[in-house]
Design the sequence.
């Protein structure tokens, strides 16, 4: 946790979810009660086909809906892509950019991610910018170098605490059931905080949310969310089930007392 930063638990449904998933999403809305909403922001990023319907369902609760990716351009001849403006039009409030699966599957580089973050801001969305080292990089001892270059290359210069969330997601921890030790998470998150504060100033950088992502589950959420400079979680698999994502968000009932 970081004192004075409101935590965020964001669920990334990836390429999962059909109209029938509305029942599970409804259970999330119902479980996100006033006590939980006082402690932690909750967001679900479903596939693009469900953004509008989920955003409408979520009203008038505080549960937010986000996109999983956007194109850098506002419109044009880009078959199959989705513009940040389209997500905003469908009532999304945020978009994930630079997820490691996008970086791997679509050969996205830091410069693409930076342009997508700019597009998110152009459309009035929060950009959730993902960074994280591969297993070989951790083994070689170059984790912090990798994170530093991703932060530099992927985050535009005019980032503000209100429109940027950084998600630290070690690639080897995503979908594997493996997580770094809390001390390793603390080291990377404190490093990210220092870099953000140095680049954007203590005030802005000190208030930017830094999420941890990679096999966050109900049974490890409290330990991971209590780590210094961990301001919430980006959750993949466990965000598909209302019971699991609500249990993860509920870690803040214990942490905050
Ligand atoms: C993710 O895809 O961002 C992620 C963290 O996945 P999982 O929680 O399934 O590891």
Sequence:
């Amino acid at each position: 946790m970081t004192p004075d930063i409101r935590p965020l638990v964001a669920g990334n449904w990836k390429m999962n979810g059909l109209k029938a998933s509305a029942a599970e999403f409804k259970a999330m809305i119902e479980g996100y009660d006033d006590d939980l909403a006082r402690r932690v922001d909750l967001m679900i990023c479903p596939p693009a086909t469900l953004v509008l319907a989920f955003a409408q369902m979520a009203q008038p609760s505080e549960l937010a809906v986000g996109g999983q990716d956007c194109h850098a351009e506002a419109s044009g001849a880009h078959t199959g892509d989705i513009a940040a403006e389209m997500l905003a039009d469908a009532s999304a409030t945020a978009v994930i950019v630079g997820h490691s699966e996008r970086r791997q599957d679509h050969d996205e580089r830091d410069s693409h991610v930076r342009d997508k973050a700019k597009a998110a801001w152009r459309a009035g969305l929060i950009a959730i910018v993902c960074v994280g080292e591969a297993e070989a990089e951790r083994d070689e001892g170059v984790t912090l170098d990798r994170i530093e270059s991703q932060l530099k290359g992927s985050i535009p210069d005019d980032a503000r605490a209100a429109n940027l969330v950084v998600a630290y997601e070690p690639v080897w921890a995503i979908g594997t059931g493996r997580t770094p030790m809390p001390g390793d998470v603390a080291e990377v998150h404190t490093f990210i905080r220092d870099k953000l504060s140095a680049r954007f100033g203590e005030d802005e950088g000190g208030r930017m949310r830094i999420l941890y992502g990679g096999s966050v589950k109900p049974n490890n959420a409290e330990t991971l969310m209590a780590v210094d400079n961990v301001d919430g979680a980006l959750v993949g698999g466990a965000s598909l089930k209302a019971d699991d994502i609500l249990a993860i968000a509920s870690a803040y009932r214990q942490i905050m007392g």
Remarks:
- The first helix runs from residue 22 to 31.
- The radius of gyration is 17 Å.
